[in-house]
Design a protein that fits this description.
Elements: E1 7-13, E2 17-23, E3 29-36, E4 48-49, H1 51-69, E5 76-83, E6 89-92, E7 102-103, H2 111-118, H3 127-130, H4 139-149, H5 153-158, E8 162-165, H6 167-175, E9 185-187, H7 188-191, H8 206-211, E10 221-223, E11 226-231, E12 242-248, H9 249-256, E13 265-269, E14 273-280, E15 291-296, E16 304-311, H10 315-323, H11 333-338, E17 348-350, E18 368-370, H12 378-404, E19 411-414, H13 421-431, E20 435-438, H14 443-455, H15 461-468, E21 471-475, H16 481-497, H17 504-510
Helix pairs in contact: 9-14, 10-12, 12-13
């Protein structure tokens, strides 16, 4: 048996799909299973997922990956979980049934709740304690919405019958037995996105829970990102396998990119874009619209912190151009169109579909396409679509440089859109620093696998992660400073045009 090769599985529960990926000791992908789940839009600004569909898909993709790898659970040293953060699930612990669909991180229905909580103190009311502004993005107000709006939910919650978790907690609870002894835990990275955890002491803030009228009994136990939480039970394919790592998706990507030194940064290009810079064991409060978040915590070690900038719409803008406008048949086609022209023809797309996240935090902004003339064609719009991702990332980098006091020298990138060479070159040009892509771009799943593998001794701490990381391609900036700043000034002008769009008339007519 000792000669049998061992592997680690990561379950990556994302916004659009759930995947199971099996990695070998070198951090290389052995097999993958993937299944998309339905995006539910009951009203304008509302985004939901069915937690039971996600759980079914998880079981399915685990089977796919094991089958493709031609191994069974005995060859898995551990399972790690990474997940879409802030997406809130509330379920009945006696039946295992969700009381409502999962409310997704992009959902904006909790704006009124956030305004009421802010009162005269404003959106930064809790920021010193939790590192986050009051915004629809985070889990706390979503839980409150469910308890306030689902019949009987508040009574059940106060009786101790309901549990809350981001999708990591929902999966771990089900994997470890569900109603038959399921473990109700989360890790520090996910807890730091609820707006309910003290960012310095890493425990639940009872006063904020009381403000949001959320019973503390609903909340999962906060653990480190790398330890054995429990063993597979109900999920027959993973029976007795240690579930040993949890990292929210962006922290997982930071871990998988080996950003262990203070000042190292990565940018993930997914449904949205997320840039994190490691600030070490020091907790840095942002003066420039960034979030203070936990980067990771390995076992009993001290927590490592990060500053994060989040952009709501990047990859999903390409989906919108495909599905809503019908300009392209598939995502890669956007690059073909964009390459037909040398620039955007003066056209800028600001994808504020559900407001703007960092560094603006404007929930009443909405998407705009500006600078249109008869000259502009679909190629220019395709190029402006890609450039919107790079410009939004530039806004984040400027805020990070200001907050950290350290000018970034290079940016590590990952996620689906980094295959797009045109985008990556423009990203380097508009940032003025090299952009570096690793060989394994599935760094989110890889980070969760590393956290789980480290917990059971499959890997020897961060050094193995550093040794496994390797560069695939590097883009150097080749735009002169004056042109770069001109482009950026026009982008900022376009962004300002998107502000303050939502008002009563818009809500009455289209809400």
């Amino acid at each position: 048996m000792s000669n049998t090769p061992m592997y680690v599985m990561a379950i990556d529960q994302g916004t659009t799909s759930t995947r199971a990926i099996i990695f070998d000791h070198a951090g290389k992908i052995v097999a993958t299973g993937q299944k998309e789940h339905q995006q539910i839009f009951p009203k304008s600004g509302w985004v939901e997922h069915d937690p039971l569909e996600i759980w079914r898909n998880t079981r399915s993709v685990v089977g796919e990956a094991l089958s493709e790898a031609e191994i069974n659970r005995h060859q898995l040293a551990a399972v790690g979980i990474t997940n879409q953060r802030e997406t809130a699930v509330v379920w009945d612990k006696t039946t295992g049934e969700p009381v409502y669909n999962a409310i997704v991180w992009q959902d904006t229905r909790t704006q009124k709740i956030c305004n009421e909580l802010a009162g005269d103190e404003g959106a930064d009311k809790y920021k010193q304690r939790v590192g986050l502004p009051l915004a629809t993005y985070f889990s706390g107000p979503k839980i409150k919405w469910i308890l306030d709006n689902v019949e009987g939910a508040r009574e059940k919650a106060e009786a101790g019958d309901l549990l809350f978790g981001n999708t990591d907690s929902w999966l771990v609870w089900n994997l470890t037995g569900g109603v038959n002894g399921g473990v109700h835990v989360t890790d520090v990275t996910n807890a730091s996105r609820t707006m309910l955890m003290n960012i310095d002491t890493l425990d639940w803030n009872e006063e904020i829970c009381a403000d949001m009228s959320i019973p503390v009994s609903m909340l999962p136990e906060i653990k480190s990102s790398s330890e054995v939480y429990g063993y597979g039970r109900k999920q027959g394919l993973l029976i007795d396998t240690p579930i040993a790592g949890i990292l929210g998706d962006q922290q997982a990507a930071t871990f998988g990119q080996a950003c262990f030194e203070k000042g190292m940064a990565k940018n993930t290009y997914g449904t949205g874009n997320f840039m994190l810079i490691n600030t070490g064991e020091e907790l840095v409060h942002s003066e420039n619209g960034l979030l203070t978040t936990v980067c990771y915590k390995i076992g009993d070690n001290k927590p490592v912190y990060a500053l994060e900038g989040s952009v709501a719409v990047t990859g999903s803008l390409v989906q919108w151009v495909r599905d809503n406008l019908g300009l392209i048949k598939d995502a890669p086609e956007i690059e073909k169109l964009a390459k037909q022209v040398d620039d955007n023809g003066g056209c800028f797309v600001v994808p504020a579909f559900s407001g703007l996240f960092a560094p603006y935090w404007k929930s009443d902004a909405r998407g705009t396409i500006v600078g249109l003339t008869r000259y502009v064609n679909k190629n220019h719009i395709a190029r402006a679509t890609l450039e919107a991702t790079a410009f939004q990332s530039r806004d984040l980098l400027d805020a990070m440089n200001a907050d950290s006091g350290v000018a970034l020298t290079e940016l590590k990138v990952d996620g689906g859109m980094v295959k797009n060479e045109t985008l990556m070159q423009f990203q380097a040009d508009i940032l003025g620093v090299p952009v570096v892509r690793p060989e394994v771009i599935e760094t989110t799943a890889l980070g969760a696998a590393y956290a789980a593998g480290i917990a059971v001794g499959f890997w020897n701490g961060e050094q193995d992660v550093i040794d496994n990381w390797s560069e695939d391609k590097r883009w150097e900036p080749n735009m002169d400073e004056e042109t770069r700043e001109r482009y950026h000034r026009l982008w900022k002008k376009a962004v300002e045009r998107s502000f303050d769009w939502m008002d009563e008339d818009v809500e009455e007519l289209y809400g």
